Amino acid sequence: VKTQSHDYPIVITKDARKLSMSEQIVPFISGQQVLIVTNDTVAPLYLQPLQSALEKSFTVKVCILPDGEQYKNQTSINQIYDALMIEHFNRDVTLIALGGGVVGDMTGFAAASFMRGVNFIQIPTTLLSQVDSSVGGKTGINHPQGKNMIGAFWQPQMVLADMSTLQTLPPRELSAGLAEVIKYALIMDADFLTWLEDNMAAMIALDLEILGQAVQRCCEYKADIVAQDERESGVRALLNFGHTFGHVIETHEGYGNWLHGEA
Ligand SMILES: NC(=O)c1ccc[n+]([C@@H]2O[C@H](COP(=O)([O-])OP(=O)(O)OC[C@H]3O[C@@H](n4cnc5c(N)ncnc54)[C@H](O)[C@@H]3O)[C@@H](O)[C@H]2O)c1
Ligand SMILES: [Zn+2]
Question: How far is the CA of 61 from the centre of ligand 2 (A)?
């Protein structure tokens, strides 16, 4: 992904549980300090191997937030700041977001604002976060009066999307992520739409090879758009295709009743 601040890679793998994810990300950690931010659903699934592998080379602390969009707020951001302050972590710290879009958006915003900006790495574990929220540098939290109203553009040092994490994702969340995949086909590439029709059953059956190919194409499209228009003053708004109606449904049916992708 080419951005004004720096360029960074998106690495797509499919064996998080065998190979430790740490091998991929260690080269992108510059200092000695690491704070892994995750939530109480993802932590029991993926935290331990990552944490123990990183502990071989770094001082590693963990911040486990409650799971849910309703916790995407300033209280959770303060929990991240508290963890950083208690450990006397400084500007050399690297934050690692391990989870879906909610964890990624909050971790990115905490990284953008702690000490006026520190490095962070995205390890997205939902399909939606792998194809959309982890790429492009939009970070933030909700305000009681509106979603994503407080935030910053802040780019990660790298993104590691491991397809095997999708094996534990609830099927509804997988389908909601597929909605964003279909969105890219509709706005960018009719041939990709045909490809999706041919491969949809395989993706729903969790064929990790096919899912990886789909994630790669979506990330290429998003990287291309972000390179042209990082701050959404023009072409990046295309990524909001379908979202005008979707947001109405989400707002009026109550957040949580409809997933974003379903809406
Ligand atoms: N920054 C951006 O550009 C951007 C773009 C799109 C969406 N978003 C934001 O992303 C958020 C939605 O992200 P999301 O759909 O990933 O939701 P989410 O982060 O809430 O994750 C959905 C659920 O799946 C759980 N989960 C995550 N990974 C799992 C795994 N591997 N196995 C089992 N359970 C797992 C989570 O704990 C959660 O309960 C919203 O807050 C939205 O505003 C941001
Ligand atoms: Zn969306």
Answer: 31
Backbone torsions φ then ψ of 201, nearest 5 degrees: -60, -40
> What are the chain's domains?
10-163 (3.40.50.1970), 168-253 (1.20.1090.10)
Decide: 169 in ligand 1 pocket, CB within 6 A. yes
Site to probe by mutation for ligand 1, drawn from 39, 72, 173 as the one with most ligand atoms within 8 Å of Cβ, is 173
Q: Would the pLDDT of 19 be above 60?
A: no
Residue 236: count of CB within 10 angstroms of its CB:
17
The ligand 1 atom nearest the CA atom of 40: 37
Taking only the tens place, the pLDDT of each residue in 124-169 is 999 999 999 999 999 999 998 888 999 999 999 999 999 999 999 9
Please name which of 143, 75, 82, 72 lies closest in space to residue 108, comparing C-alpha atoms: 72
